[in-house]
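Researcher: Go.
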Amino acid sequence: MLQRRHRYFLVLLSLLAVALSANPCAVSAQAFPAQPVYIVVPFAAGGVLDSLTRLIAEQLQAKWRQAVIVENRVGASGNVGAAYVGQSRADGYTLLASPPPPLAVNQFLFRSLTFKPSDFAVATVLARSPNVLVANPKLKASNLPELIALAKASPGKLNYASTGRGGTPHLTMEWLKLETGIDLVHVPYARGYPQALTDLVGGQVDLMFVNLSDAKQLIQSGQLKAIAVADANPIKGLTDVSPISRQIPGFTSLTWFAIAAPRATPRPIVEQISADVVSAMKSPMVADRLKALSLTLVETAPAEASSFVEEEAERWHKVINRIGLQPE
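Model: Structure:
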């Protein structure tokens, strides 16, 4: 009798081992995280996304009791970092902190990518910020109608800065040019916002679309002036600056930030990451930083986050087609 029970017990253990080997996700989901987690930021350190990701990493590290390491892998409009994460092991230990380009825009601008947006499971959208059209204070226009009149009076005389071809600042301005019929010269800055904003303040360039988070202090100090906001409603603190959509219906341009994992990451792990990141975003330290940066918290579960990113991709695809920007 004892031998029979022993054999029965061994059979149960064998069946359990087979089940777990066939479905390792069950174990990994329960144990997650059991080792350091890496969050890849595909743009240079010092920007809003990088700062926000590092704040979240601190909160997650305390909650998970594991190291959460932020790593900057820059290049090709975010493609280098996105490709690295997309090709990483799908276990939740390598994540992507992404603005719009890698997940919603670059697929329409590059002929050859080593990743696809479908390679990712979007865990959550962290926050959003409206893009604002700002100008050097010396520009003789203080609102959108005045800017349009000034640009049409001197076609090709005014210029605008961007973070490079296909970035949100570039696409938004080209969209505005198309809708208003104005002619502006594009001045791309491959190094991103800091140098572009420095030259805008210095008068080397005239205009730029920039997310409110990066421009808020410069606007408040009078170093830049806000011409218009690319949001449906006026912005708190800039209530005297009109939304572009009042003149051009549907004209909306947002900068948003999301956390994504490789597509095959077990669903329970993606859901846990989503819930824990949203919880981290609500911590007093992060909430205060969001407020200071004029970022709006976006609480999305994985299904909602994926739908949001897909809608953004569809919208920017239409814009890219309308302005005639071809893949390179």
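Model: Confidence is low (pLDDT under 50) at residues 1-29.
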